Amino acid sequence: MKTKTLFSWKFMSIFLAGISIITIIGCNDDDDQDYITIDSEAQDGEWVNFIENLSFESIILTENQDDLKNALQQAAEGDLIFFEDSDLQSSQHLRNSKGAFFSLTGFDGEEIAISNRTTSNLTSDSGKGEKSDKNNRSCRILEITRSSLSSDIAHYKIMVRMGSGPFDVVRIHRVVRESRRFRPIRTAGNVFMIHGSSQDFDDIFLRPGIENPDTQNSSPFYLASNNIDVWGIDLGWTMVPLETTDFSFFENWGSNKDTGHVLKSMAIARLVRGLTRQGFGRMNLLGFSYGAAVTYNAAIRETKQHRILRDIKGMIPTDFTMVYEQNDDPFAAGSCSLSEASEMAHATGGYANTNGAGFAAIGQAALDDPDSDSPFAPGLTNYQFAVAAAAGPQTNGPDWHFLGGQFDGQLPSGLAYTDEERWFNLLIALAPYMPTYITAEGFSIFCPENREGIIADLNQVKIPILYLGAAGGYGQDGVFSTTLTSSSDVSAEIVTKFPNGPRILDYGHADLFMANDAPELVWRPLRDWLANH
């Protein structure tokens, strides 16, 4: 069944301050009723048309009447409230809401009806100024695209403006199995993934050094093939082009901004999941490397909010730590020094960290001319230097490395678990720039004066946690942070090839998503945890 006026939104986003009663409208053909039906059998994705019309400050999703009452109290002007339950009583009072209200009915059937009709008398001026109000809201859906990764797995991209800055735009990804176009299967679990420094969703998750994802080389493809609804994000700074020279827009761009963008993106993901028959429930949040810091920050931020505003069900911090067990850990001190150096660079106008551009040059040289002398490291070939950048010890910890290597004396001669060409391809795909302030802010958590505050914040976190680690990355160091939370459901999976050392030969930081045996050692236990959470 379809209505004749699908997606006519003259009444969309009606603010309800002063409106006293909402009436649920059934799912039937009546052109006089202000509602939309989304036909989940449709081949052209009617839910896409609905999403592309949205603009908002925040999205609040509710699953029962108690949640709805709290949502009405918490909503601010410009917020959108979505109510999943079809049993809302007509006497429900909405006086306290400043947000726009949409009720969903027929949720478990083949159609979903979305209504914002009220029994109050709306004046002829009620919609006046709505267009300008929408344009002034911080969040707007810009574009939704779909492509096929296989005969039954689709990849969606949703572009969302998050503010007025030139790069206040994020790209949300969804990788999911479908029974037909725009019709996802009923999945067995979900995850929202945040990439690390200088990366994006494609670089480290969907296509890490490869062109065609499958179950053996792509964690989202693997998870989607095993009935997990996979979401992710490209943070705004990943879309700054290489030719950029003016980075003034990066001046105040830190992890708090990224955290806010992630949480708003999760709300959008929850809404789309609801509209595509997955339910409005909260989601599991996975963050890799810097993304793990954002994951912790998001979980901590939600402890300070009313529960109705929270989007995180469980979290999977991946190969990162917020607090070292020993207060005098030398690598905590080194990270604090890096923060101070980044603060100095930022104070003198160095707003952009260019590591991504540098790594891309290293990768390109290794692909184009592997046997020639490296311009970055005299005495090594381009191939040798690129491999050393992956497998050689870094400053993050004792013998910490990106990828496990094979050694000929002190110099890595190749990679042990990940194909070299994949590493080179990953390097050339990295985002060229990220804000310096993120480095300054991110590494400052390891400074002694911040330790107790971080511990106190972690103690407020009570959601389920799975820690994923690589013994040659942060490994066991990342477990300690999880023990500081108040969660009663904490588990850890640390991949190791050498339980008794040497660490320099063990599974590396990025092997978790790039190694040939990652599907068995990393993604399968992740899938099992997601299916049970």
TrEMBL record:
Alphabetical list of PROSITE patterns matching this protein: PROKAR_LIPOPROTEIN (PS51257)
The keyword Membrane belongs to this UniProt entry's keyword annotation: yes
InterPro entries: AB_hydrolase_fold
Ranges that cross the membrane: 7-26
Chain segments annotated as coiled-coil in the UniProt record: none
Region (Disordered): 118-137
Domain of life: Bacteria
Keyword Cytoplasm: no
Residue stretches of biased makeup (Basic and acidic residues): 127-136
Signal peptide span: none
UniProt keyword annotations, A-Z: Membrane, Transmembrane, Transmembrane helix
This protein's name: Alpha/beta hydrolase family protein
UniProt source species: Poritiphilus flavus
